C-alpha cells in the first residue's frame, strides 16, 4: 500500500496489515469502501494511501471469511454503496491481530533503539 509521497518516502505494508486496518476502521461502525480508504489515510496522517484495487480485494476476502458483512445502502452523496460492518468473528480477529501487532511493534522498537550488547 504506497503513500502519496515521493518514491523515496513510500511505505509498503506487510501482508495482512490492510485487513487489520479495515477491521479497525469498522470497529467504529458501518462504512462504505471509499470511507474506509479515507479513514485509513486520515488516521495514518497521509502515510497510507489505499488503492481501490487492493481495498476491494481485501473487503471481499474479509467478507468471504465472515469477518465483515455487507449490505447496499445510499452514501452521503446520494449514491448506491455497499456498507461494511464488523461481525462477531471479525471483532475477535481484530483483538487477536491487534495484540500480535503490538507485540511485534514493541519488539521492533526494542531492537531498533537498544545499543548492541558487547561481546
Number of domains: 1
Briefly, what CATH class?
Answer: Mainly Alpha
The CATH architecture: Orthogonal Bundle
Write down how many β-strands occur, each being a DSSP E stretch of 2 or more residues. 3
Would you identify the regions where 5 or more consecutive residues have pLDDT less than 50?
none
Structural class: alpha+beta
Report helical residue fraction. Answer: 40-55%
Order of helices and strands: HEHHEEH
The global form is elongated
Order of strands across the main sheet: 1-3-2
Largest pleated sheet: 3 strands, antiparallel
Tell me, rounded to a whole number, the average pLDDT: 88
The share of residues in extended strands comes to 5-15%
Rg (C-alpha, Å): 17 Å
Amino- and carboxy-terminal Cα gap: 40 Å
Tally the helices.
4
CATH superfamily: Winged helix-like DNA-binding domain superfamily/Winged helix DNA-binding domain
Structure in words:
The chain is an alpha+beta fold. The protein has a single domain (7-113), classed as Arc Repressor Mutant, subunit A (Orthogonal Bundle), CATH 1.10.10. 50% of the residues lie in helices and 13% in strands. It is built from four helices and three strands; from the N terminus they run H-E-H-H-E-E-H. The chain has helices at 17-26, 33-43, 52-64, 88-113; strands at 31-32, 68-74, 80-86. Strands 1-3-2 form a three-stranded antiparallel β-sheet. Helix 1 crosses helix 2. It is elongated. The mean pLDDT is 88.
